[in-house]
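so i finally got all the pieces together for this one. its two components total, 797 residues if u count the protein bits. some of the lines might not be protein, just check the labels. i wanna see the whole assembly predicted at once instead of chain by chain like last time, that was a mess tbh
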Amino acid sequence: MLYREAGQFKTSYAADQQLFPIRQDRIGLILLLAVAFLGVPMFASEYWFSAILIPFLIFALAALGLNILTGYAGQLSLGTAAFMAVGAYAAYNFQLRVEGMPILVSFICAGLTAAGVGILFGLPSLRIKGFYLAVATLAAQFFIVWCLTKFPWLSNNSSSGVISAQNIEILGYAFDTPRDKYLLVLAIVVLLALAAKNMVRSTTGRAWMAVRDMDVAASVIGIRLMRTKLLAFAVSSFYCGVAGALYAYCYLGSVEPDGFSLDMSFRILFMVIIGGVGSILGSFLGAAFILLLPIFLDIALPFFAGLFGLPFSSATVSHIQILVFGALIMFFLIVEPHGLARLWQIAKEKLRLWPFPH
Amino acid sequence: MKKVFKPAVAAAAVSLAMLSQAAYSAEQFFPIPSYRVGAYGANGQAFYGGFIDYLNYVNMKDKGVNGVTLTWEECETEYNNAKGVECYERMKGKAAQSAGPIHTMSTGISYALIDKSAQDKLPLAMMGYGRTDAVDGSVFPYAFPLVTTYQMQASAIVKFVKDKLGGNLAGKKIVYLYHDSAYGKEAIVALNAEASLNKFELVQIPVAHPGNEQGAQWLKIRQEKPDFVIFWGWGVMNQTALKAAQKVGYPRDKMIGSWWTGSEEDVVPAGEAAKGYMAATWNVAGKQVPVIADIEKVVYGAGKGNLQDKAKIGTVLYNRGVSAAVLSVEAIRKGQDKYGKGKSLNGEQMRWALENLDITEARLKALGATNLLPEIKTSCANHEGSGKVKIQQWDGAKWVPVSDWIEGNKGLIHPLFQASAKQYAKEKGITPRDCSKEK
């Protein structure tokens, strides 16, 4: 009833081609952004900022990066965490070694550095595909982490390879409280997400999808495979690099190379799979699911256990949490293999007809 | 998304409300980010079991510290940095009124919490691990790498080796076999300094994580024929090294490990190959220590023990947990002496107490903890307080101490910490405190 496009006439090409063609979607998005930018900072506690919202946004950004590469361009990658590591260490070094470098420029340079490294490790994709490519990107995962521990210059000769992020200051304003950091991360993520949403429906995005669906056919119709694939690697790594820099500067504050482990790459890949392969919204839903559900179970299980008088230790809770989490992933994959984004899409279609389905 | 949020808020709010009701009488709260599941769960079970058993013991035997009951809440970190941060953020609200030192037993989580804990004014204890340059309390007021650090420990091991080799290391060769990670690399700077001071040759051999294949490394060790092997292992790497040493015929009694490589979990799986192997430790194992025996009697006698597997009582890691708790409780006593007996301490007061610890041999004896851990005297300039370790040897069934407390070369190692802390202060724009004005 509320969600119906009847009566919304598009009288110009611009109206027809806009990012969110349905008016309700636009209103919804503006409301969501208003809540995120204005409502949340007023009411959320420090715990929500530093333990839930900031990591959620950062991982959503990383998942978005991987989704561009895997979901849109069809190149499976297991090196996401490594590209994040490149971003984190690059931002650190730019800040450290270039006097008076603005932090935002450092973040962009970090993204560009990661993009460069991404292109390098994307080269094998010109020859190998699918699971074999995944193994090749695995090399990036191990090589980069090794590299960061091996060369002390990269961590400013820290004896342990751990770097500690510098303070964030933009135009004389110090971003030091969790709320400030949240707003900074939110602004960057929103910008990059809108850019991605735009990109995937441009020529570039269509070329990616053509390559994903059948690269031989794509090359026959004149899409240059090398450029398209490497561009996908570059853009994807740029997103991951920025996410890595934010991870170091706005979330943990200090990072070590081993923190960017294969385990983290897998987690981001699961976010993409659960959220929806080839969907911008899916990256956010997936990150929310993978990141927030365990925390929710962690808090809710002892509460329910207390209600029923069951003796739960924190270890038991942890075991049960892993169990429930695994079961839910399987449930979702069976019921909706295209991820949470697809569920949302189905809900939207149902809503259009509601309350009078045919 | 929103559907997930709401019940989470509700559950959190209700559980907070339930907890705050209990907080009326004087209580000292310990936020414990522990790990009992995951790859290192077995280690965490023993350590945190010992820690909580001692808190319980103080509650049961002395009715708390001057009448202040010790309370705690555990949060499972699975040794994962992000989860550790989440746990810390979750518990820090409760720790605002009264906070015991936070023991994470993880270098990674400690690194992630160093800035946050200083901002929130909560003391972070990192007993025997890092960030090690936090020994310099002028830059790190809220971080306490108590008892010993990787570098001081490496220095103490070199001293022990020197004694073994007749008091002179010139021209000798020592292999440093280490886990190729932040943890393994911490000690290198100390060993290099020792090598140039004592004129021995240091051969560094890294082992990639997880280290379950060390054929090449031990072949190299056989070629090098070192006088000693200093061993900085981790997890499965430890037993593998012992078996590999046996295979190439390197004597185990010429191998000395760090304190992460010297627990029962490390040597029992290696079986016969572990016999004669030595490791550093900052607490002794065994139930002969009076306080350990008493905990078993009092706490487990009342059926309130934390461990399900009682066989772990008296193991190296269990006793380490007890040692950590002893230090924490002694700090509470010290703080109450200054800020009022029978009152709980907040993070700032606790910080002062940890910085002014003075646990003498006599005090340890009174606690029944003679020889469990070394004497400790901290100050603003020295958050380590001791720098002493013991060398213990595995006789095939138990760990036997084979040395007295050995102190690392403070004059050599502490300047390294100060230089590193200075660099950190510069990067972060911190103005160090003036330690001469602290009291």
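Chain A has a mean pLDDT of 90.
The CA atoms of residues 102 and 172 of chain A lie 10 Å apart.
anyway lmk what u think
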